[in-house]
Amino acid sequence: MRFNIFLSPTFIFIFFSFFLCSSPVISSSADTLTSSDSLSINQTLISAGRKFELGFFTREDKYYLGTWYKDIPQDGVIVWVANRDSPSHSSSCTLEIGNRSNLVILDAGSNVIWSSNQSTAANPVLQLLDSGNLVIREAGDTNPGNYLWQSFDNPTDTLIPGQKLGWNLKTGLDRFLTSWAGPEDPSTGNFSFKLDYHGDPEFYLWNGGQIIYRSGPWVGQRFSGVPEMKTGSSGFNFTFYTGPDEVFYTFELPPNDKVKSRLMVTFDGFLERWTWVPDTGEWTRYWYARKDQCDYYRTCGPYGVCNVSGLFVCQCPAGFEPKNSQAWQLRDGSDGCKRSTELNCDNDGFFKLENMKLPETETAFVDHRMDLDQCRDMCKNNCSCTAYANAQVVQKVGSGCVMWTDDLTDMRDYVEGGQDLYIRLAASDLGMCPLFFVFLLFSWFRNFKCLPFFPPRITYFN
Q1: pTM of model > 0.90
Q2: Which residue, of 99, 245, 262, 324, is most buried by count of CB atoms within 10 Å of its CB?
Q3: Which of 83, 88, 121 is nearest to 102 (CA)?
Q4: DSSP letters of 413-435?
């Protein structure tokens, strides 16, 4: 016997409306979560333009909430993790908006294992944006300045376009990257990339409590220690902002561009920029640090200059000599260099080193309104001043002043891409520099004592 059942469109609409409304979970295509919804391990939020996806993922039988690229099929690159140090061991974990309007992850339905910990709201909504930012806001209020909480303020190991690294000086918020503990372990690792906003701000890569790499200060279009970095190169638009309320770095890509880029700190302690090129369908490592011995922090000690093209990477500039001659001959330049002649203040002059990564700037003086001549005069009249340089160089045109009063540390010499640094020398050393070069060259061949800079690089300023 055969039955023919006719279901009217009205009946179908009522039936499915009842089914969906009776379920506390959300549609897999939605980009928002309300206080009456929850997200389980088999569901995701997808941004409106289908750029990013938020959901639970597993590593080593543990459940984490994270964000990944939606428009790169089967990519597997996680750009943000919420509960990296509080994973769930239960497949029944859920994501909800708690009774205090904060975002919570519940383990086995009731135990809170992670919370976003922000202020309460009358009608909170969680939304995943096309930028990859996960935000909590008041329903109906899409003003970014009014977000109650956002994942961009709580980065893990990856920086994506539009996301800031650095400080909100009004609130004390420090946004920095921290590596995964291992290739399959999202928990907090040993390596972090942080901004020091004192003096002339610059980034440091840390291994626990030890600095292992320094970016150098921002010099207009790039960081001093990253000559490969150029605004506009391959579509990148890099920004470094310094103001009374904020100091941060961010980058953008052209709108509607299919090329993607991300900056990350790896579990084994490298800083890497990756780009996705649709034509190849692969991530390509565009740039990385630490890539050579001179990228390691303070390889050559105070006043030492690192140069990978030399027979020995550590060099002493003219007017200086190795502080520890025996260690220097054994290829250990960590003690750095010392002055050949003590300074006399009134009679001192300046010696120009070209293509340099600027020294550490934590205690440096910075004034973007001064020109280089004013900077030189200020340094000349300050007996404690050890060096000066332009604060910024854009299209080979310098501006501003940065001035050092401490020992010069963590310098390196580039074949191209660095900038001019003017170091203070005693008048007697400036006067003998051409002969001093010949002497040092002979000295190096004899006992590997010091590698001088080549004559075309020498310029003198009295």
Answers
A1: no
A2: 262
A3: 121
A4: E-SSS-EEEEEEE-HHHHHTHHH
| CA dist., res. 380 & res. 387, Å (int) | 9
Pairing of strands 185-196, 365-367: unpaired
Residue ranges with strand state E in 82-121? 94-97, 103-107, 111-115
pLDDT digits (tens, 9 = 90+) for 240-268: 999 999 999 999 998 777 889 999 999 99
Which tens digits make up the pLDDT trace of 366-400? 999 999 999 999 999 999 999 999 999 988 899 99
Tell me how crowded residue 394 is: count the other CB atoms within 10 A of its CB.
12
Residue 25 contacts residue 37 (beta carbons within 8 Å): yes
CB crowding 59-73: b at 16 or more within 10 Å, else e: beebbbbbbbbbbee
- Residue 346's H or E segment, with its range, is none
Q: Where are the domains of the chain?
A: 24-151, 155-291, 318-461
SS3 130: coil
- CATH 2.90.10 fits domain 155-291: yes
Rounded distance between C-alpha atoms, residue 357 and residue 373, angstroms: 21
Residue 425 has a pLDDT of 97
The tokens for 156 are: 């893990």
The pLDDT-based confidence of 1 (bands split at 50, 70, 90) is very low
DSSP structural state of residue 88: B
* CA–CA distance, 333 with 280 (Å, rounded to integer): 44
CATH number of 24-151: 2.90.10.10
Phi, psi of 100, rounded to the nearest 5 degrees: -105, 20
Domain 24-151 shares a fold with domain 155-291:
yes
Scanning the structure block, which residue is given the tokens 């580039």?
Answer: 414
pLDDT tens-place string over residues 444-453: 443 343 444 3
Paired tokens of 394: 């854009």
The secondary structure of the chain in percent helix, strand, coil, rounded to multiples of 5, reads 15, 40, 45
Sign of CA dihedral 159, 163, 165, 171: negative
Cβ neighbours for 409, distance < 8 A, ≥ 6 positions apart:
298, 301, 302, 303, 336, 359, 360
